Every structure is written in structure tokens, then in C-alpha cells.
Amino acid sequence: MSSKLVYSTDQGRIEDKEDTSDQILGSGNVKIQLETKGRKGKGVTLVKELAMTADELKVMAKKLKNHCGVGGAVKDGTIEIQGDQRSKVQAFLADQGIKAKLAGG
User: Fold this and answer.
1) How far apart, in whole angstroms, are the C-alpha atoms of residue 26 and residue 1?
2) Beta strands in 1-105 (DSSP E)
3) 21-102: what fold?
4) H helix or E strand, kind and range, residue 63
5) Are 90 and 97 in contact (CB under 8 A)?
6) Bridge partners of 81?
7) What pLDDT is attached to residue 11?
8) Is the dihedral of CA 17, 21, 27, 29 positive or negative?
9) Which residues contact 15 (CB under 8 A, 6 or more apart)?
10) What is the dihedral of CA 73, 78, 86, 58, to 10 degrees?
């Protein structure tokens, strides 16, 4: 396990911080929701709480983007897919053996 040295201005000294690349980010309670706030009316499908590492999330995001034929990104442990792709994402995750619920209105 490698560690990185991180300088913290809060305490003014160097701290030893663990590498988080192999840490599971989500709880496994997968939620799919549509978000339009702060996006100038453009909808984005969010996939939250996937129990995967950061690298696995990137791979899953790529598969989802290809399946839906749109762009997207991974931010803060959440996969963002452009547009309202909730039904496509839910069907794809079900094919992968991942149980997901639609959240929000």
C-alpha cells in the first residue's frame, strides 16, 4: 500500500495520507435520478452509491456512455450521464446484475 504526503495549511505540517484508489466508494444501495438544477435546464442522469472503487466506476461509466450513446463523467463517486437516460441505465445495470432504484420525481 503506497501513501502520499499531503501538505495541510490547516495545521501547517505534512500529514501521511493513505492512497484511496482501492477504496469502495458507494454503499451498494444504487439510486438513479435525473438532475436539472444548476445545469441551465439540461438534464443529467446520476447513478449514485455503486459499491465500486474509483477505477471500477470509470470503467462502468464508459460502458454506460457507450450503451446510451451519450457523454458523461465520474464526479465524487457518482456517474453522470448526459440527458434523461434513467430507463436505459436501469436496464443496463440489471443486465450486469446490479439492482438499482429510480429516485426522485
Assistant:
1) 21
2) 3-8, 13-18, 30-35, 44-48, 72-75, 78-82, 100-102
3) Translation Initiation Factor Eif1 (3.30.780)
4) helix 54-68
5) no
6) 45, 72
7) 54
8) positive
9) 5, 6, 7, 8
10) 50
C-alpha cell at 74: 465520474
Write down the pLDDT at residue 1.
52
Place of cell 440489471: 94
61 residue type, one letter = A
Span 33-81, pLDDT tens digits? 999 888 888 899 999 999 888 899 999 999 999 999 999 999 988 999 9
Ramachandran sector of residue 12 (left: φ over 0; alpha: ψ -120 to 50; beta: rest): left
pLDDT over 60 at 12, yes or no: no
Cell of 24: 469502495
pTM of the predicted structure, to 2 decimals: 0.74
Instruction: Provide the 3-class DSSP secondary structure of residue 84.
Output: coil
**What count of residues does the chain have?**
105
